[in-house]
Amino acid sequence: MSVSPLRFPSHVIDVAVIGSSSEGLRLLGRHLAAAGFRPHLLTADETEECLDSTSCRIAIVDLEQIPEAIGLVTQISTRPNVSVVLLGPGPDATWRREGYDANVDYCLDKPVAFPELVAILYRIDRRTGRAASSSTWWLARDLRRLTVPSGEVIPLTELEARFLSLLGQAPDRSLVREALQLGMWQDTGPHLVRRLEVMIHRFRQKLSRYGISDDPIQTRWRTGYSFGPTMVMGGGRVVPADDANADELPATAESLRRHRLSFRARSSLKDLR
Questions:
Q1: What is the second-level CATH architecture of the domain 13-131?
Q2: Ranges of each domain in the chain
Q3: How distant, in Å, are the alpha carbons of 77, 88, 96, 108, 174 from that of 91?
Q4: Which of 140, 176, 223, 250 keeps 20 to 30 A from 77, CA to CA?
Q5: pLDDT digits (tens, 9 = 90+) for 183-213
Q6: Fold of domain 136-272
Q7: What is the DSSP string of 43-80?
Q8: Contact predicate 135/80, CB 8 Å
């Protein structure tokens, strides 16, 4: 029976490779690069920043200490858009069971058979490519980066990141302009309405420059704005667009209520004067 050769994908696949041995990392990196991947060689401490700031949706964990590896896998598994391949010390069933309990996608024995590893990575890429929603966006708030569904990473200004973070907290609701102003500038007023509109206009222009034709920012007539697609926040929490929770008010709404009470109190003092 003939075996069909692997076909390189037409796009670049970013892979996070986490290891404790620099020599092992370099070896893995060379093999992956030769197979058409773009490896990011990392220590365990660098993993979160890499996953936040790049389009890596596959992570290979190759740490010498299995408890440390399982801990890292558990941390990565909070990101629904990242698949994990765990490399372990031979056919012992214990570490495999722990790995699968921590939501590992594949467990492979070391030394790794690189053709098998490459085939698994291609399979993950095909599977996640079909499963990923065309409207899923990833926001790394602290790093001020937005990853669009195509995998493109867009740098954000501090105001843009704050704006998207506020919308991401309540994607099923319309955030009124006053609430957005309070969340971004801790104040409200006509001059901030204009400043908000200019910021949103420039953000839409930025998306257009990156080839994003579908505007995720929905304008609510005479009220405010919302973020239409599904958003994954920096910590890996999925915020679906249709997830409604009527019992939980956004923090910005409570801030707006307090602001209005404070405004009424200041107005009353002026009247007394």
A1: 3-Layer(aba) Sandwich (3.40)
A2: 13-131, 136-272
A3: 23, 8, 8, 9, 53
A4: 250
A5: 999 988 889 999 999 999 999 999 999 888 8
A6: Arc Repressor Mutant, subunit A (1.10.10)
A7: -GGGHHHHHHHS---EEEEE-SSHHHHHHHHHHHTT-T
A8: no
